[in-house]
């Protein structure tokens, strides 16, 4: 993993790579490489012992041409302006890639949530919600969970917003608990789209997912669900990891048991179903049929890519490969299926949640999963068409060509205000 690559510059490079295959004016393309606005704020919060702490927090609204800004809120000590801007841009192209009517946004607080009590995290979250209130709304900007946030934080944000606005507006945020207006299937949606893209990718490449060996870096929400559902297709999950290290069993780990172990102990290390403990670097360079990076951005840079031995990579995390890594992997004939499609299940079911909130009508989990499968497989077909019809170097550029074209079209139809 490298911290040297600025994720915002990676996003801009990815857009430039696709722009070469699009017939658009340079000024119009330039606009698609920068956020429309970024809120930067300092949350001043009282701790349990009466002391005061200040937390840097951001919300980037990247592009709203196709609909309200949409994207998660991350709690992590490495959150900074460049990361939030990059993540908000990736959301624009993700929503466009799967054809849902949203723009892109993203937020984050620079905090290590493990160091704070639940009461302190609630005050931090409500303080951020108060800052966000003027710029969010069901038709304006709709946050969601991301790394280290989940239903609990979404419920707090919804409650703060509704209390201050003196209304009920569950569609102001997605990823809520079911009883607070959440959707069936939302928790598993990101991992489910990763599984669907892996299934479609293996089919498209003429490979068999059954008995395929799989390594998963990052065993949180996205990674553990992707592992479990890919295992259900008959694949063999041989290695998984989290920030404390990796575990391996050449005969396969039980994905559900490994998750239960992590829930009980806080880590996958020490899981009795493993035969060996490895480093994350060992996992990323392991000779497997499928590698699923599901932790954070910049997990694989150009140097590490030279040692990657997987045949196929399906990106569950946002931005896990640097542009240099992409170049090396093209040379080495590793097929990479990009984040903006593979992890789009999360935002797609967020969209279904928002639709249900607006209709005040709940769908069954089966309906959610069926609609998700339709959206992802249709987007996969568009990806393959774009890959075959343009002389693009990889699937990422093909997906960006589809997504940018859609954003450009709506911008063109709206016209430019003086
Ligand atoms: P999470 O907090 O549930 O899990 C993250 C996991 O990664 C944890 O197990 C953590 O220990 C592990 N990790 C952190 N640093 C690591 C490292 N250096 N090596 C190995 N493991 C490491 O977060 P999540 O929601 O699963 O998100 C993971 C990725 O998926 C992020 O890039 C996120 O933006 C992306 N994503 C998540 C969703 C969603 O709905 N949850 C949607 C789209 C994209």
Note down, in words, how this protein is organized.
By secondary structure, the protein is an alpha/beta fold. Among the domains are: 35-171, Leucine Dehydrogenase, chain A, domain 1 (Rossmann fold), CATH 3.40.50.10860; 189-337, Rossmann fold (3-Layer(aba) Sandwich). The chain has helices at residues 7-19, 26-31, 81-97, 118-132, 151-165, 186-204, 221-232, 255-265, 280-284, 302-305, 323-331, 339-342, 345-359, 365-389, 395-414; strands spanning 37-46, 52-63, 69-76, 104-110, 141-145, 213-217, 236-242, 245-248, 276-278, 290-293, 312-314, 335-337. It has a seven-stranded mixed beta sheet with strand order 9-8-7-6-10-11-12, sandwiched between helices. It has a five-stranded mixed beta sheet with strand order 1-2-4-3-5. Helix 6 crosses helix 13 (345-359), helix 6 (186-204) runs parallel beside helix 14 and helix 13 (345-359) packs across helix 14 (365-389). The longest helix is centred in the last third of the chain and has 25 residues, at 365-389. The protein is globular, with a radius of gyration of 20 Å. The protein starts with 6 loop residues before the first helix and ends with a helix. The model has no long low-confidence stretch (mean pLDDT 96). The structure holds nicotinamide-adenine-dinucleotide. Nicotinamide-adenine-dinucleotide (NAD) is lined by residues 1, 145-148, 190, 217-223, 241-243, 280, 294-296, 316-318, 343, 346.
């Amino acid at each position: 993993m490298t911290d040297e690559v600025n994720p915002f510059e990676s996003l801009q490079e990815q857009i430039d790579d696709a722009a070469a295959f699009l017939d658009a004016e340079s000024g119009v393309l330039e606009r698609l490489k920068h956020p429309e606005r970024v809120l930067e704020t300092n949350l001043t919060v009282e701790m349990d012992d009466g002391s005061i702490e200040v937390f840097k927090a951001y919300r980037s609204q990247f592009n709203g041409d196709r609909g309200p800004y949409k994207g998660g809120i991350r709690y992590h000590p490495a959150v900074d302006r460049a990361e939030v801007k990059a993540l908000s841009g990736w959301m624009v192209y993700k929503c466009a890639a799967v054809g849902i009517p949203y723009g892109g946004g993203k937020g984050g607080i620079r905090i290590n949530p493990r160091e704070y009590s639940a009461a302190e995290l609630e005050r931090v979250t409500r303080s951020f919600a108060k800052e966000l209130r003027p710029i969010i709304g069901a038709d304006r900007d709709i946050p969601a969970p991301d790394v280290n946030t989940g239903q609990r934080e979404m419920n707090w944000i919804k409650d703060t917003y509704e209390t201050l606005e003196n209304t009920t507006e569950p569609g102001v945020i997605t990823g809520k608990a079911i009883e607070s207006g959440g959707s069936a299937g939302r928790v598993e949606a990101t991992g489910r789209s990763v599984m669907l893209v892996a299934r479609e990718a293996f089919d498209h490449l003429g490979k068999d997912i059954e008995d395929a060996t799989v390594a998963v870096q990052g065993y949180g929400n996205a990674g553990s669900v992707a592992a479990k559902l890919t295992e259900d297709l008959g694949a063999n999950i041989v290695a998984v990891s989290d920030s404390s290290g990796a575990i391996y069993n050449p005969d396969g780990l039980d994905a559900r048991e490994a998750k239960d172990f992590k829930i009980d102990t806080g880590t996958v290390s020490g899981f009795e179903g493993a035969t060996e403990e490895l480093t994350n670097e060992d996992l990323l360079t392991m000779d497997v049929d499928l590698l699923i990076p599901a932790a954070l951005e910049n997990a694989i840079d150009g140097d590490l890519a030279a040692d990657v031995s997987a045949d196929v990579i399906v990106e569950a995390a946002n931005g896990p490969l640097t542009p240099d890594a992409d170049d090396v992997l093209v040379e080495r004939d590793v097929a990479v299926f990009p984040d903006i499609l593979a992890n789009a299940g999360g935002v797609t079911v967020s969209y279904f949640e928002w639709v249900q909130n607006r209709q005040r009508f709940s769908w069954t989990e089966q309906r959610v999963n069926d609609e998700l499968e339709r959206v992802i497989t249709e987007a996969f077909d568009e990806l393959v068409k774009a890959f075959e019809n343009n002389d693009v170097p990889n699937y990422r550029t093909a997906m960006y060509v589809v997504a940018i074209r859609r954003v450009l079209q709506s911008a063109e139809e709206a016209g430019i205000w003086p």
